[in-house]
UniProtKB/TrEMBL annotation:
PANTHER family: EG:EG0003.4 PROTEIN-RELATED, FI06409P-RELATED. The keyword Methyltransferase does not apply. The keyword Transferase applies. Belongs to the UDP-glycosyltransferase family. GO terms for molecular function: UDP-glycosyltransferase activity. It comes from Brachionus calyciflorus. It holds the Pfam family UDPGT. This is Glucuronosyltransferase. Signal peptide: none annotated. Keywords: Glycosyltransferase, Transferase.
């Protein structure tokens, strides 16, 4: 089982990280990734955001060590994980459609 997740931090990657409760080291590249990684790392404190154009292997290694050793990231991500698992999108969609059809 993974303890952390390195990704480009698009919405799908972030959704997976939250679903599995894994803190993230973000390496945003383009599109929504810089904004998503900024929110994830800077505002929500669920991981660390790398400066895509400036980071080195030493920076990446340090960020991974920070995510592994600072339990704050894991604890906060676990809160989001538990919250997201309370919502069953498929079943909720089925219920909405059935309610609409049965009206």
């Amino acid at each position: 089982e993974a303890s952390w997740y390195v990704c480009h931090c698009g919405m799908n990657s972030l959704s997976e990280a939250i679903h599995y409760g894994k803190p993230v080291v973000c390496i945003p590249i383009m599109y929504d990734q810089p904004l998503v990684s900024q929110r994830l790392a800077d505002e929500l404190k669920l991981g660390i955001r790398m400066d895509t154009m400036k980071f080195s292997s030493v920076d990446l290694k340090q960020s991974i060590l920070d995510v592994l050793t600072d339990q704050t990231y894991s604890e906060k991500m676990l809160i989001f994980c538990k919250s997201s698992r309370n919502y069953n999108g498929v079943q909720n969609s089925i219920n909405l459609i059935e309610n609409y059809i049965n009206q």
